[in-house]
Amino acid sequence: MEEMFRKTLKEVFQLFLQTDNKQAVQQALMKIKAFSGADRIRLVLFNEENATLQFVEEIAPSADAQLSAFLNTPFQGSGLYFQKDLPWMVRRLKEGKEIVMAQLNDMPWEAFQEKSILSASGARAFYSFPLFRKGKACGFVGLDFFAEQPPLHETEKENLALLIHPLSLYLEKEGAFKDGKKISQQLQQSLTTFRALFDRLQIGVEIYDEKGYLVNINPFALETLGTTEEGVLGINLFDNPNITEEQVEVIQSGKEVTLANEYEFNAVKETEYFITNREDETIHLIGKCIPLREATGRVFGYLLISSQDEGYYMEKETLRISLEKLSLAVNTQDVFFWEYDVKRDRVTVDYGLFDPRRREWVNTVRQMNMTNKISHLQHIHPEDVGRVLQQFNYMLEGELDFFTETYKYQNGNDYSWFTTSFRTYKYNADGKPETIVCLTTDITEQRTNEIELIKAKETNEIKTAFIENMSHEIRTPMNVIVGFSSILAENNDTPENQYLIDLIQRNNEILLRLIEGLLNFTELESETMKYNYEIVDVKTLCEAALEIKSANRKPEIRFHLADDLPSILLHTDRDRLLQVLYQFMENANKYTREGEVTLSYHLDECGQVRVEVSDTGIGMTEAELEKIFSHFYKTDPFQIGVGLGLSIARKIVEDLGGTIGVESEKDKGSTFWFTLPLAAK
Q1: Terminal C-alpha separation, the chain
Q2: Which residue in 254, 367, 471, 657 has its CB near the most CB atoms, within 10 A?
Q3: Cα distances (angstroms) measured from residue 571 to each of 599, 605, 657
């Protein structure tokens, strides 16, 4: 609540610094009304000439209620109030006492006239605070509540009185110092009045005599200026280095001056205007310099009221932080801001955002020598300049607010790739651009990488197409060789010929497997591997794999299926899964000298089927296990094959929604396994 009071008090006082008097009074009443929670507030002056009450301003819940609450319920029925109509209230207020009634029933019996009028106007509680001029009560501010209020604490009463006090200062300014009192008495009386308010407010008050010498100053002005009373008393207003010569001339002519200056303390130190402990900084002060006049019109002094513009500082600090962030963003990449003044045909680059340490980039931008529209466009590559110019002309005609273009820009003997966003910042009277702001980014490295990536992709596509075509071309004559080798085997029973034929057939099979692996690898790389799903019995699948492998195995190795395995149904691709099993068994056959290879399967704890192929072969080291499923990797480089089988098996299993792995120990055999969900994903 105290913070809200201080904020409201400062806002009320600043109204009389920044706004004309009529607006200041009305807005001040609105702020006091909002702070107090009153339903109605009025400012009333005592007119001593005809002993009436002058209603100056009233703020009520609706426009229809303005200045009507009392006047529509006059005690005398004339629509005009005499001071005698409210005798108890006027007497108490003229004595300088406030009236705080949390409910009308608290009013004394002699206030029956006031109670009747207030009740008829809808009030159920009211507060009234006297206003002063020349030390005498000259009127009051009344606050009406349409509901009874809780008792008002002394602190709350004091706060309300302080909020209303600036209105007394306004009345003092309007009518004070016109009765010929001695200057020293007037100055001292004014300073005393001001101190009662400003001891709780960060607003500076300075009083100067007719020659401009400082005769008094309040604590908040001293704090703002970073000095002491002894250090500034006697300084001359007209020597202030932060007040311009033009402002001094206006002040000396006897006119009121509104000040909104950048107060530079380094200027204070350089001119030795006064001693300050403030650093060489600048603050923004707003205020007024008011001439003090006698009744004859002679100026006998000056009143200077000022405060720091917190809103200005907040905007300035926000702008500073925003610029720091913008500068940080700009200096993380090759970016620069520039603007185009359409009328002057002038390009201006904002070098203030550049990090001076990035000299190479700053020099690059400077060497572009962008001065006008032509100097910019003539460096754009001929292939791109027409497109950019067309969009730019649309913007100049007011048909576009913004656009972004990517183009090649001549940078020395080479071209760089730029992306520029153009946006209209200001418009002239006919709706066409006056100023265009632009953000340009050098994307040469990014563009180069994109081009290289495209070339690599094209090269890879060509390679893939070549492998596919060559694989098919090789397979055609191979089928002929395999076919006729089989016929030859059937019609020749010479042992030597039979040996050669067997040799041809084994190598034919090896070559076919190599080509098959190459084709599968091509499909894997090009993401074109296809799957045909059906219901498959795992037991039947393992038996089929064993049958295929039995025709091509070492006689020293026994391939068999584990005993007592149940039937488990899978929704999967039978042929692809058979290919994986065959690859596992082929791998076991290669690296097992003697012993056995066992196929088994079971449901794991996740409800997936786990298929295993275990051998009694040479096993693998930890280093070999990490690479076993990689492309073109072979544990024994002298074994026939290109090292694609297991990497293709991994791709198939993962595509079918499963996982694949191996467990092995050197010289103790290996177990290759995969898991699959019962239903295809």
Answers
A1: 64
A2: 471
A3: 20, 19, 11
As a whole number, mean pLDDT of residues 472-481 equals: 62
The CA-CA-CA angle for residues 280, 305, 258, to 5°, reads 90
DSSP letters for 88-116:
HHHHHHHTT--EEESSGGGS-GGGHHHHH
SS (H, E, C) 331-373: CCCCEEEEEEECCCCEEEECHHHCCCCCHHHHHHHHHCCCCCH
> How much of the chain exceeds pLDDT 90, in percent?
17
What are the tens digits of pLDDT across the range 408-425?
888 777 888 888 889 888
CA angle 236, 242, 247 (to 5 degrees): 80
Q: Rounded to whole angstroms, how far apart are CA atoms 153 and 478?
A: 108
Question: For the chain, what percentages of helix, strand and coil (3-state, to nearest 5) are there?
Answer: 45, 25, 30
Mean pLDDT of 529-545: 89
* CB proximity list for 439: less than 8 A, separation 6 or greater: 335, 336, 337, 420, 421
pTM: 0.36
Which residue in this structure is represented by tokens 């002005």? 221
User: Tell me, what's the pLDDT at 40?
Assistant: 92
Coil/strand/helix, residue 426: strand
> What's the average model confidence in pLDDT over 245-255?
89
**Mind listing the pLDDT tens digit for each residue in 81-124?**
788 888 999 999 999 899 999 999 889 988 888 888 888 888 99
Please state the φ and ψ torsions of residue 137, each to the nearest 5 degrees: -65, 125
Helix axes 2-18, 21-36, angle to 10 degrees: 170
Separation CA 627–CA 632 (nearest Å): 10
The two three-digit tokens of residue 171, written as one number: 């009345």
φ, ψ of residue 184 to 5 degrees: the values are: -65, -40
For the chain, give me the number of helices (H) and strands (E)? 20, 22
Strand 125-133 versus strand 414-427 pairing type: unpaired
Segment 143-155, tens digit of pLDDT: 999 999 988 888 7
Min mean pLDDT across 167-181, 362-376, 608-622 is at 167-181
Alpha helix positions (H), 121-178:
154-175
Strand 125-133 to 136-145 pairing: antiparallel
Which tokens go with 500?
């050669």
Amino acid identity of residue 461, one-letter, is E
Classify residue 38 as exposed, middle or buried by CB count within 10 Å of its CB (0-12, 13-18, 19+): buried
How far apart, in whole angstroms, are the C-alpha atoms of residue 162 and residue 169? 11
Average pLDDT value for residue range 177-192? 44
Decide if pLDDT at 615 tops 70. Answer: yes
What value does the mean pLDDT take over residues 367-379?
84
* CA pair distance 397, 291, nearest whole angstrom: 53
pLDDT tens per residue, range 56-78: 888 887 544 444 445 454 433 34
How far apart are the C-alpha atoms of 165 and 13, rounded to whole Å?
A: 9
Cβ proximity of 240 and 274 under 8 Å: no
Q: Please report, for residues 23, 175, 210, 584, the alpha-carbon distance to residue 216 in angstroms, rounded to integers and kept in the order given.
A: 29, 22, 13, 101
Average predicted confidence (pLDDT) for the chain: 79
Tokens linked to 310: 């917190």
